[in-house]
Amino acid sequence: MYDRSWHRLSTDDDRAGVKTPATLADMIAGAEILGSTSDFVHVDLYDIDGAQRFGELTFYLGSGLAPFDPPQLDDSLGRCWLMPSNRLT
Asked: Got the DSSP string for 4-25?
């Protein structure tokens, strides 16, 4: 997991050192459009030879039960998720 500046956030995978995609700015713009109507969606996008490719949308990543590594990442991301005050909980 990386932030929008391509700084690695998660330590639980073997993709350390993956270079910044050439189409990162387009990927971010596309993900923002695809996710604009949802509270949360995981958008899989790929850079294949300098071309952006769509993978899938996931609305309940890990069924909402997968732990974060490091655990502090859960709290950090949770603070970014602001629900509208008029929404039922």
From this structure: TT--B---SSS-TTPPPPTTHH
